[in-house]
């Protein structure tokens, strides 16, 4: 899974290890929570989707998962030494409120870590897709509420929001990731199936538009082909900070 | 029923009501977690606490 490539850097950034109680927000299928537990942390996963939490629980029965809203966390003040979210912030309508909650449940000196995508100029898969939708489809369809998708891809904005949320020493780094695809059509399929907002954007296109988008994606992918595999740079931005 | 001891004490110790942030306790029949302040009960489904304000029921006492 592409979003797993940055996971180890995220776990390092929050100091996931033994003696650390860690909350994984928007834990999805639970891979990040389980990796944190494997490093010795007392890890708990939280996801707003009951279906996701059930799925995670089945995959990792030894790891506790709860259904919870990142903006109204059901944990006491200072309950954790680490809070992380791997690509979770992108799906929240009120990310500042979630960061306030992260701060509340962290104890003083605790670490927060989050990942988002690098901007589409650098996260090439997004760039190709969004340019194709702009050229051949309707980029203005109604999507689930959320902040501008690449808002936190800007290190300055990321640091500002963390500082305002009660965190000190915010640090933002870019972590390289590569998306390897056997064919360009799979890029569209992956966005359709596995992503919330970009998938929504694609699902809202007409059949004809989608066909044209597919053709444009195919063409744009050609220059990234190496020995029959398409290799797209998809770097992540990793932000971390310490609770004051 | 499969509920028994599915939720660890460690988790119970740190869970609070997502609305008023007061402690919650496991109901005697283990069907949910009840807020000691606002009396909301958060259901436990498939051994997973569902700590969503909209999914809670309010008990009269």
Textual characterization of the structure:
The complex is a heterodimer of chains A (244) and B (61). Helix content of chain A is 37%, strand content 25%. In chain A, the strands form 2 sheets. Chain A has a 7-stranded mixed beta sheet with strand order 3-2-1-4-5-10-6, sandwiched between helices. In chain A, strands 7-9-8 form a 3-stranded antiparallel beta sheet, with no helix packed on it. Chain A has one domain (2-243): Vaccinia Virus protein VP39 (Rossmann fold, 3-Layer(aba) Sandwich). By secondary structure, chain A is of the alpha/beta class. Chain B has 61 residues and is mostly beta strands. In chain B, strands 1, 2, 3, 4 and 5 form a 5-stranded antiparallel beta sheet that branches. In chain B, a hairpin with a 4-residue loop joins strand 2 (32-35) and strand 3. The N and C termini of chain B lie far apart (25 Å). The A-B interface holds A 21, 42, 44, 48, 50, 53-54, 57, 64-69, 72-77, 79-80 and B 7-8, 10-11, 14-19, 21, 23-24, 42, 45-53, 55.
β-strand amount of chain B: 25-35%
Radius of gyration of chain B (Å): 11 Å
How many beta-strand segments of chain B?
5
The largest sheet of chain A is: 7 strands, mixed
Average pLDDT score of chain B: 90
Low-confidence stretches of chain A: none
Q: How many strand elements of chain A?
A: 10
Superfamily (CATH H level) name of chain A: Vaccinia Virus protein VP39
N to C succession of SSEs of chain B:
HEEEEE
Shape of chain A: globular
Query: What is the string of SSEs of chain A from the N terminus onward?
Result: HEHEHEEHEHHEEHHHEEE
Helix coverage percent of residues of chain B?
Answer: under 10%
Largest sheet of chain B, described in full? 5 strands, antiparallel
The low-pLDDT segments of chain B are: none
* Cα distance spanning the termini of chain A: 34 Å
The CATH topology assignment of chain A is Rossmann fold
């Amino acid at each position: 899974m592409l979003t797993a490539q940055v996971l180890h850097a995220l776990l390092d950034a929050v100091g996931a290890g033994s003696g650390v109680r860690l909350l994984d927000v928007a834990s999805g299928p639970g891979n990040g929570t389980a990796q944190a537990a494997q490093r010795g942390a007392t890890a708990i996963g939280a996801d707003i989707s009951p279906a996701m939490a059930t799925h995670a629980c089945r995959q990792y029965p030894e790891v506790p998962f709860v259904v919870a809203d990142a903006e109204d966390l059901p944990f006491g003040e200072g309950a954790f030494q680490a809070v992380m979210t791997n690509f979770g912030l992108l799906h929240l309508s009120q990310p500042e409120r979630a960061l306030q909650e992260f701060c509340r449940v962290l104890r003083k000196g605790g670490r927060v870590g989050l990942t988002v995508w690098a901007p589409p100029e650098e996260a090439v898969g997004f760039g190709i897709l969004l340019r194709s939708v702009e050229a051949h489809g309707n980029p203005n369809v109604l999507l689930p509420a959320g902040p501008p998708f690449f808002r936190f891809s800007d290190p300055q904005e990321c640091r500002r929001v963390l500082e305002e949320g009660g965190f000190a020493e915010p640090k933002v780094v870019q972590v390289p990731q590569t998306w390897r695809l056997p064919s360009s059509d799979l890029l569209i399929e992956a966005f359709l199936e596995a992503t919330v907002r970009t998938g929504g954007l694609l699902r809202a296109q007409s059949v004809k538009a989608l066909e044209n988008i597919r053709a444009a994606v195919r063409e744009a992918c050609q220059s990234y082909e190496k020995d029959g595999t398409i290799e797209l740079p998809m770097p992540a931005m990793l932000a971390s900070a310490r609770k004051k | 029923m499969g509920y028994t001891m599915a939720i660890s004490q460690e988790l119970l110790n740190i869970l609070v009501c997502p609305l008023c942030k007061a402690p919650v306790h496991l109901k005697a029949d283990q069907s949910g977690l009840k807020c000691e302040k606002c009396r909301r009960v958060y259901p436990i489904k498939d051994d997973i606490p569902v700590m969503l304000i909209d999914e809670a029921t309010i008990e009269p006492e």
